[in-house]
Structures are given as structure tokens and as C-alpha cells.
From TrEMBL:
GO terms for molecular function: formate dehydrogenase (NAD+) activity; NAD binding; oxidoreductase activity, acting on the CH-OH group of donors, NAD or NADP as acceptor. NAD(+) binds at residues 148, 202-203, 222, 283, 309, 333-336, 381. Belongs to the D-isomer specific 2-hydroxyacid dehydrogenase family. FDH subfamily. It catalyses: formate + NAD(+) = CO2 + NADH. One of its GO terms (biological process) is formate catabolic process. Keywords: Cytoplasm, NAD, Oxidoreductase. Substrate binds at residues 123, 147. Gene3D superfamilies: NAD(P)-binding Rossmann-like Domain. This is Formate dehydrogenase. One of its GO terms (cellular component) is cytoplasm. Its EC number is 1.17.1.9. SUPFAM superfamilies: Formate/glycerate dehydrogenase catalytic domain-like, NAD(P)-binding Rossmann-fold domains. PANTHER family: FORMATE DEHYDROGENASE 1 (PTHR42938).
């Protein structure tokens, strides 16, 4: 029998389950690269249900009960008196989501001597101290590709929201106004702009593909260049470093993993090298930008707008400066947890657990750390 502590975001304020807007979600046959969707033996939820909150429990309550395991589901994750810390001492498995991350620090690892498996429901395991996981032989896994397209769609929405000045215009409409001039005094067309992505991995490339029909000039920087035929098909210009890309675009969208090389990549110096009136969208990780430098660049008007859904820490304090900085179109960390995405990563979490309990290998593309080493996707994405 194993003990699993699952840290999920709180239920909706109006209670659970919510009244759903639609009956179902579209059926997807496979991921864009042809790889297969999660394939657990069975699922105990209806795709389209809210699974990522405490009452949703990723649709796994029956799975753990049937296996005779103990499952604790909580949203209480901060500080030494939190329910998460209380149950960590004898937990075998921790499951958390980047949207409401249970930070697994070195200190917390030390207080979790039985921990063997740290699962990310979604993508992005940087809330887990991966060096410590390797040192302790803890397996870390996530559901690669499960929400990549969800994030790409949110990114395109936020680019358009910034450039078209959507948020203030909506505010005028919702508050009884018809202030056309106030709405459009900062509104532009994206057509003809230079738009670049930092990292053309699963998400970055999906953003490029979705932006191609907008009549923009596309750019990218990545540590590895895309095949020539892909570059030509996308009509995208390659930049050998982020400095070159930043100086060449009107819109920069960040899609690189948070590692030492990308930490505070968009600092004061890089921001000043960008064209006046540039926009930045960051749906990767907040610490890839320098929080104070972003606020200063928006206040001075050098940046025309900043959007994204990633903050540090999460949740941010009520007075976090990014909540109120000028010309922002921030959302909470939601891009990768649409109901469509939840169905995929909940099924993927179950697939990993089924394999884990049966002693079968976990799919290589889901692995981040195994046997004291970066493995699978982790060996590609997190190895520095
Ligand atoms: P991928 O692994 O598919 O792509 C990451 C890309 O970044 C790869 O092409 C990689 O190159 C490149 N890269 C690695 N190091 C650097 C570097 N120093 N500078 C520039 N590029 C680099 O990941 P995804 O596209 O699926 O996800 C990207 C990030 O998005 C994740 O790390 C995660 O933090 C974030 N994310 C956010 C979500 C949200 O809800 N907001 C949800 C999902 C992910 P190569 O492979 O050649 O090494």
C-alpha cells in the first residue's frame, strides 16, 4: 500500500461541480508530432469535467481506493503547518500541478524520506528540485505534450489582446462606456509586425504555426536550429542568440524551459535593446524575466505591453506588482489547464501510476528524472 499526497488548486467559489458550458470536448486522435495520447487501461471521469481542483482529484480517487492505497488531496501547501507538509513525512508519491505548485525544495525532500515518485500533472517540473530528486533516486515524470497546444492557443490570444488593446476596450464595454478613442489610442494590427519566439519546441513551434496566417514576419531563437525545410515552410528567420532576436521583433514570446541559462534572460539590458513599443508574452516561466525590470520598462513606456500566465511565486501575493503594472494582460496560470488539457494530463497521470504500480517502465517521453539521472524528456529539456 502506498500513500499519495496530491496538491491541487482549490474548488470553484460557487462549489463543485460547476455548471459546464459544453457537453463534451473534441476528440483528438494524436499529438501534432504523431505521438500517441495517454493510454491508461481505463478512466473514471468524463472528458470535459473539472479535474484539476481538489474535488476533481484528477479523476483518481477510485483508482487509489481500488488499489488499497491512501490518497490525501489538498490545496493547503504553504508553510510548515500546511496539510502538504504534514503528510509529506510518510508520502511515497507526490502529485502536483504547475498552476498550483507544491514546491519540492531540498528542505522538503529531507522531510520526505519515503518519497519515490514526484509527478507533475501537466508540463514543467521546475517546481521540483531536480538535483535533489537525482541525489535521492526519486523518479520525476510529467505528461509531455498534454497541454502544449493549450498553451500555444493562450499565447496567441494574449499577443492579440496586447496589440489590439483588448482588455481596456472590454472594460469600457462592461462598464457602460462607448469610448472609442480611449479604446483605440493604443490599438494596432499585428499584420506586418515582426514576431519572434524564444525556443521553438512543442509550444513555440505551435505558436509560429498559428501566427503564420496573420501576415507577420516570423523569427525564432533556439539552442538547436529547426530543419531547413521546417524553417522554409514556416517562413521563419533564425537568430543565433536571444540578443539578436530581441532587437529584431515587435513581439517576443517566451517558450524556453526555466534553467540557469534562461533565468532572468529578459533583464534590464535586454529589454533596453528591444524596439520602443515592443510587447512580451511569457507563458513559459516567470523567472525567465526580471520582475522589476519588466515593471520599469512598462512604466517608462519602452515596453508597450506584457502578458502571460506565469508568476513567481504562485499564487502571487495580492499586492504583486504584476497585478497592477501598466498595460498588462496577465491571467493566473491557466493556459495549460483548460478542461481539454485536464482530460489529457489526468489520463496521462493515471497511465504513469498504472505503470509505476505494475513495475512497468514509464513512457520515456514522460520521464524527467529516473535512477538518479535525467531521463527521457528530462535528458533533452532539463540537462544543462
Ligand atoms: P519543449 O521541450 O518541447 O521545448 C523547449 C525548447 O526550448 C526546446 O526546443 C529546447 O531546445 C529549447 N531550449 C532549451 N534550452 C534553451 C535555451 N537556453 N535557450 C533557448 N531555448 C532553449 O517544451 P515545451 O514547448 O513543451 O514547453 C516549454 C516550456 O513551457 C516548459 O519548459 C514549461 O516551463 C512551459 N510550460 C508552460 C505551461 C503553462 O501552463 N503556462 C504548460 C506547459 C509548459 P532543445 O530541445 O534543442 O534542447
Amino acid at each position: 500500500m502506498a500513500k499519495c499526497v496530491m496538491v491541487l488548486y482549490p474548488d470553484p467559489l460557487d462549489g463543485y461541480p460547476p455548471k459546464y458550458a459544453r457537453e463534451s470536448i473534441p476528440v483528438i486522435e494524436c499529438y501534432p508530432d504523431g505521438s500517441s495520447l495517454p493510454s491508461p487501461s481505463v478512466i473514471d471521469f468524463r472528458p470535459g469535467e473539472l479535474l484539476g481542483c481538489v474535488s476533481g482529484a484528477l479523476g483518481l480517487r477510485k483508482f487509489f481506493a481500488d488499489g488499497g492505497h491512501e490518497l490525501v488531496v489538498t490545496a493547503d501547501k504553504e508553510g510548515p503547518h500546511s496539510e502538504f507538509e504534514h503528510h509529506l513525512s510518510d508520502a511515497d508519491i507526490v502529485i502536483s500541478q504547475p498552476f498550483w505548485p507544491a514546491y519540492l525544495t531540498k528542505d522538503r525532500f529531507a522531510r520526505a524520506p519515503k518519497l519515490k515518485l514526484a509527478l507533475t500533472a501537466g508540463i514543467g517540473s521546475d517546481h521540483v528540485d531536480l538535483d535533489e530528486a537525482r541525489a535521492r533516486g526519486v523518479t520525476v515524470a510529467e505528461e509531455t505534450y498534454s497541454n502544449s497546444i493549450s498553451v500555444a492557443e493562450h499565447t496567441v490570444m494574449q499577443i492579440l489582446a496586447l496589440v489590439r488593446n483588448f482588455v481596456p476596450a472590454h472594460r469600457w464595454a462592461a462598464t457602460g462606456g462607448w469610448n472609442i478613442a480611449d479604446c483605440v489610442a493604443r490599438a494596432y494590427d499585428i499584420e506586418g509586425m515582426d514576431v519572434g519566439v524564444i525556443a521553438a519546441g512543442r509550444i513555440g513551434r505551435a505558436v509560429l504555426e498559428r501566427l503564420r496566417p496573420f501576415g507577420v514576419r516570423l523569427h525564432y531563437f533556439d539552442v538547436h536550429r529547426l530543419p531547413a525545410e521546417v524553417e522554409s515552410d514556416l517562413g521563419v528567420t533564425y537568430h543565433p542568440d536571444v540578443e539578436s532576436l530581441a532587437a529584431s521583433v515587435d513581439v517576443a514570446s517566451i517558450h524556453s524551459p526555466l534553467i540557469a541559462q534562461t533565468h532572468h534572460m529578459f533583464n534590464d539590458k535586454l529589454l533596453k535593446s528591444m524596439r520602443r513599443g515592443s510587447y512580451i508574452v511569457n507563458t513559459a516561466r516567470a523567472q525567465e524575466t526580471d520582475q522589476k525590470a519588466i515593471v520599469a520598462a512598462l512604466e517608462s513606456g519602452h515596453l508597450a505591453g506584457y502578458a502571460g500566465d506565469v508568476w513567481y511565486p504562485q499564487p502571487p501575493s495580492p499586492d504583486h506588482p504584476w497585478r497592477t503594472m501598466p498595460n498588462n494582460a496577465m491571467t493566473p496560470h491557466v493556459s495549460g489547464t483548460s478542461l481539454s488539457a485536464q482530460a489529457r494530463y489526468a489520463a496521462g497521470t493515471r497511465e504513469i501510476l498504472e505503470d509505476w504500480f505494475a513495475g512497468r517502465p514509464i513512457r520515456s517521453e514522460y520521464l524527467i528524472v529516473e535512477g538518479g539521472r535525467f531521463a527521457g524528456t528530462g535528458a533533452v529539456s532539463y540537462q544543462q
